[in-house]
């Protein structure tokens, strides 16, 4: 019999918190708390998990920009890791670069807790999709 995985929200696991959203620039500022278990033997967050933080901050920018009516379905994400991301608090900025009916272009960045050191950045091309009704 397969082991049962504990159920929790990915946002809870990432320690996600929306700090601010600027509707004029469609930019969101978020805080994350990186758990120790995300860190590899090199001392930084595993790369695929870094992509998850960037995806979250970019996607939330679009969700907020559409007042929760749409969420992005990624076609492509390009990511650049500039520095090892340690466990603990980090800051994220996400923004909608351009939004059309068939495609949206997003950008995201991760910074140290003070917001001074850029550690990773990403861009995404996505399809705007309606958010399904809550069950």
Automatic annotation (TrEMBL):
Per the UniProt record, which residue ranges are transmembrane?
none
Report the protein name in the record.
PaaI family thioesterase
InterPro entries in UniProt: HotDog_dom_sf
Q: Which domain of life is it from?
A: Bacteria
Keywords per UniProt? Hydrolase
Care to name a GO molecular-function term for this sequence? hydrolase activity
Q: What is its EC number?
A: 3.1.2.-
């Amino acid at each position: 019999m397969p082991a049962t995985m504990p159920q929790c929200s990915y946002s809870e696991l990432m320690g996600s918190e929306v700090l601010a959203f600027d509707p004029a620039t469609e930019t969101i500022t978020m805080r994350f708390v990186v758990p120790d278990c995300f860190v590899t033997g090199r001392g930084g967050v595993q790369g695929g998990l870094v992509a998850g933080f960037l995806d979250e901050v970019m996607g939330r920018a679009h969700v907020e920009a559409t007042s929760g009516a749409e969420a992005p379905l990624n076609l492509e994400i390009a990511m650049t890791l500039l520095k090892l991301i340690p466990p603990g608090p980090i800051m994220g900025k996400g923004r909608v670069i351009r939004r059309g009916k068939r495609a949206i272009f997003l950008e995201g960045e991760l910074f140290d807790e003070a917001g001074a050191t850029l550690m990773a950045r990403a861009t995404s091309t996505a399809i705007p999709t309606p958010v399904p009704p809550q069950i």
